[in-house]
Amino acid sequence: MAIKYGFFDSVGGDRKYTADDISNFFIKLISDGVFPTPATNLQVVEASGMTVNVSAGWGFIRCKYVYNTTYEALTIEPADLVLNRIDRIVLRLDPSVSSRNITIAVKKGTAAATAEPPELTRISDGIYELSLAQIDVSAGKTAITQADITDERPDGDVCGYVAGLIDQIDATNLFAQFTSAFEQWFTTVQETVKSTTIMYELVHEYETSEDDEFEIPIGIPAYNYALDTLNVYVNGMKLVKDVDYTLDSHRNMVLLTRDLDVIGTPVEFQVLKSVDTEDAESIAAQFLQLAQEVQTLSNRFGGLTLMRVSQAQYDQMTSHDSNTLYIISEAVS
């Protein structure tokens, strides 16, 4: 069956749901990782001798939650007398019929002159691990100190912090608010503004369609790399330029530093453009008219991006986005 839905009351046993039916409800709302607050959530800290403690806290892995209610004590195996070793403390999801659980475990590394941390196990529909910390078990070590513990919770490649949730907004109310706000702003402009710089917004929404996507098209042909302001959001969370992504201005794309491995992950681009004008009332009137026109389209507007362009700009575009509604206006130069 291609369509899944839920949830409905069972009548005579005709509606039966699995744990995955319930868990997968969160697949597009919450990402894997450790919850960011408090800062001690599932933090690995020194204890005594060759033991470490994992602090209380919440995590999320493959649409399943894990809640550690108190310190979890873990014992690190004795160090090699000659070679170094790096272990990992992991959250391990095991969906097999015999297990069906999430555990906190020590993943032992291989002793070597130049030690490397063990690879995480990540099997589709099988065991899946997130790394909370690395433990440096150098040759001859008899006790683990805090200096031997490398916190990996912030590293999105091996763990990361939980991100979400997505706010859903009813389009009818959205455009009613849009029109009302512009009416108030237009009145203010008429009365007080004669020369100003007006910022206007272009928005494009995108959903990933493949595993491990990291090259995402901005989808706004009018975006000017040198002059405009670009904001990028994933799952409603704003990304930081040069930390979470870099720009490829030639291809009009962003390159994410962390792959988006869940198909259907929402990415939103917001471009802010400025118009310097001595005829602010005229520009305000155009925006108000646009808002009123958009309201009449609200029933079929979902997923579309509005873009005001001149006829010349429209003709110069090498391609036209099927998800963009182009408003041709000769007032745009």
Describe this entry's structure for a reader.
- By secondary structure, this protein is of the alpha+beta class.
- The chain folds into two domains: 19-151, Triple-stranded beta-helix (Sandwich); 171-328, no CATH class.
- It is 15% helix and 34% strand.
- It is built from four helices and 19 strands.
- It has helices at 19-23, 171-192, 280-296, 311-316, and strands spanning 33-34, 44-46, 51-54, 57-61, 64-68, 72-75, 85-94, 101-107, 128-137, 149-151, 196-207, 213-217, 229-234, 237-238, 245-248, 253-260, 266-277, 305-309, 324-328.
- The strands form six sheets. A four-stranded antiparallel β-sheet has the order 8-7-9-10, with no helix packed on it.
- Strand 13 and strand 14 (237-238) form a beta hairpin.
- Helix 2 packs antiparallel against helix 3 (280-296).
- The radius of gyration is 26 Å and the shape is globular.
- The model is unreliable at 166-171 and 291-303 (pLDDT under 50).
